[in-house]
Amino acid sequence: MEQRERPVVETRVAVVGAGYAGLTAALELTDAGVDTVVLEASDRVGGRTLSELRPSGVRVDHGGQWVGPTQHRLRALAARFGCATFPTWETGRHLEVWHDGTRVGYAGAAPATGPGIPEYERITALLDRLAGTVDVDSPWQTPRFAEFDGHSAEGFFRSETGDEDALRRLALAVQGVWCAEPSEISLFHVLFYIASAGGYEQLMETRDCAQDSRFTEGADGPARAVAAALGDRVRLGVPVRAIRQCAAGVELSTDRGLVRAERAVLAVPPTAVHRIAFDPVLPAARRGWIGHSPMGRVAKVHAVYRRPFWRAAGSSGIATLYGDHPVGVVFDNSPEDGRHGVLVAFVYGDRLTRWAALDPDARRASVLAALVAAAGPEAAEPDDYTEKVWPQQEWTTGGYECFVTPGGWTGHGRQGWREPVGRLHWAGTETASVWNGYIDGAVSSGERAAAEVAEALAARAVAAPGPAAPGIMSSRHEQHR
Predict the structure, then answer these.
(1) 3-state secondary structure 309-377
(2) Alpha-carbon distance 299 to 62, whole Å?
(3) pLDDT tens for residues 38-50?
(4) Other CB atoms closer than 10 Å to residue 256's CB: what's the count?
(5) In order of start, what are the domains of the chain with their CATH numbers?
(6) Are 61 and 86 contacting, i.e. CB atoms less than 8 angstroms apart?
(7) What local confidence, expressed as pLDDT, does residue 470 receive?
(8) Domain Amine oxidase spans what residues (predicted)?
């Protein structure tokens, strides 16, 4: 019997990944009249954002969720599609729960006094000063680049102080932002990330900072709106298994056939690139960069209540926990109308590894115990409870972003970070210079990759005017060969 050949899709640009980076790249190219197809392995768009409408009628964000006032690209994208935001709930006093059971309430950004605070503030101010020297567009041009990249964050912290309480505060800060342990992450990457956000406070605080606002219809709302505008250009459930570059263009092998294009944008986490076979193989610098860029370890757990009971007691529902609880940070994640109360608990790093190994009942009991410590005894009995353990997700395998281990930037950054490889261009929040690791960084990376592609296509058109190269068609269609 004659074997039927695989169906072929021909387009000018193929985008791999329908998170914010891939969707933005596709939108930019489509707006410019460039025929584009988006290939997404999972059955949804949004990447590392994911909202869910629970049976209670409350929408929760399982992934990235916040937007700040200086995240201009994400805000502009949301405004284009009419996606509304509302301020993060923070009414009342915040709480610290220490390893010895001490509970400290405070108003404002941080306690005025407390264990380890003077040393913590001194070291974070030093981080800000050092971050001010970072070149976010060409990081390897930063003074003391190799020195900083040769140390872990923990090594730097311990060289600066022996105050264990300050070290606990610094460790939780690293866990909360990078979903990693201080021993795992390059000091330079910490400095680069601070610089990309515009300062340490921007990463940590709520009002006017990274955690300022949330999306009314969920953080994947703008992504869903972009996908709707792109229509059938977005193909879901189409994992890319192999990519071959040749003189005529790029051929992508998927479970549903072949896609042929002039250029491709890979808008997936660095760790996901491992799952694609490349011909020719990727350069050593790119492979080395991927090897030094593990995904963070985090779970988000939402507990939904009939009402935000903690506010009646003068609590904001925002807490940091330094003890043996699996939970490190708690936020009030209630919906905009405030009719239900929602607490979200974050489990990070090594604590996530231990907690995820427990059975479901034990995981739930340990998280609810932490919520009781943070918000009071009523937290023990939610109407709804849901977990999202990001390292267990098939296509992302972690969250919310990759971080860089010591030596990764110096060894592989210059050629491996986002340098195009032939006809392949790289997008994703990890490739952003501004708000690296955030949704805004994903959007800007998609814009940058689209601009690279458009420039390359224009240069080719000038160099070789006339019909498109064999096998590459100027308008999209499908055919069976």
Answers:
(1) HHHHHCEEEEEEECCCCCEEEEEECCCCCCCCEEEEEEEEHHHHHHHHCCCHHHHHHHHHHHHHHHHCH
(2) 8
(3) 999 999 999 999 9
(4) 14
(5) 8-49+220-282+421-479 (3.50.50.60), 86-109+205-215+296-395 (3.90.660.10)
(6) no
(7) 35
(8) 21-453
